[in-house]
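Let's practice the habit of predicting before peeking. Look at the sequence and jot down your guess about where helices and strands might fall. Then scroll down.
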Amino acid sequence: MQKRIAQLKERKAKYQSYQDNLKKTNTNELSTTDPDARLMANNNNSVEVSYNVQTSVDAQHKLIVDFKVINKPNDLGQLAPLALRSKKILGNEKFTVLADKGYYHARNLVYCNKKNITTYLTKQVYSNGSGDKDFYPDKFSYDKENDC
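Done guessing? Here is the structure:
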């Protein structure tokens, strides 16, 4: 019985250290097999512990210019940093980037524009509870004069 109690105390201490680590790092998940990996949705509509790899590819030669492995489950906010690094690596004054809608982030687009990076990507569309596309938020614009 004493041996089992000691095992349970050891187990409790291990899980308490996990909880303390989560509080200290201000995160809500922890992988015990690979501390840098996170839960992410995959193409099979399931969730796996994995990484998100960001890559930039030269359009002419089809070669990888730059990459970064991140543990955020989406691409949001990754466009500007990757585009700037790629522009620096290639040494181009003018630079054009093509990305998918997962990279759409207004601040990133403004920043890229300031750094002379032309970006092509589709705008992210956000749905609503009704399912009616006529009522999606991107269908509306703010009228400052009438405050509506």
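How did you do? Residues 1-30 form one domain.
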